[in-house]
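>> received
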Amino acid sequence: MTQDHEKDKDKFLKERASLVEWLKSRGYIKSDTVANAVLKVPREEFVPPEYRDYTYLETPLPLPGKNATISCVHTYCIYYEALKLSPGDRFLEVGMGSGYGAALARELVGSRGRIVTVEIDEETYRFGKANLERLGYNDVITILDDGSGGYEKYAPYDKIAVTAACPEEPRRIIEQLEKPGAIIYPVGGSRYQYLMLTEVNKEGKVSSQFLTTVVYVPLRGKYGVSFYK
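>> returned
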């Protein structure tokens, strides 16, 4: 999937605005805050050059690294609408990928919040970190490490997003939530997964709800899928 690049900044901006309206019409975007974040962050800057012109198609695109992709925009909207990311939130992302999700989260939590994003693949990590730094998201804390058990150094977190398919409920990551707090994660097999939202209340009571079916790459690392260990 390669071609000469024909689209300029204005064309990308129009495509981004058109996609936001489509996401609203389908119910993926429910709030002005998520809409404004998607409008502000230039997704084309988080896509490898050879796929740049396909940025605003609703399809995953390959990234540098092992089995790495940037997900469709609607999946980020599902995640962040469900989590209700808000100014001041301390947020952990397991699976930095391109850095696009961390950039959106930074726009949602604002300068009072904190974004920690962990990536296990070194090639993918370098790509995502460079994207964030180039676009001025220098206060995002990027970590090259196994995030399959979370990242305890900056815990607790108000909100957590796991962007790879867990083989089971990620209990070790859930334990790093503040009370109250919320985590969203896909869990299940290789063909598709169940996207789950788990919330912990002030008393520590845990409740979970199914959101939708999704397709994500398997979670790598100690607590990930066995053939990636």
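>> The radius of gyration is 17 Å.
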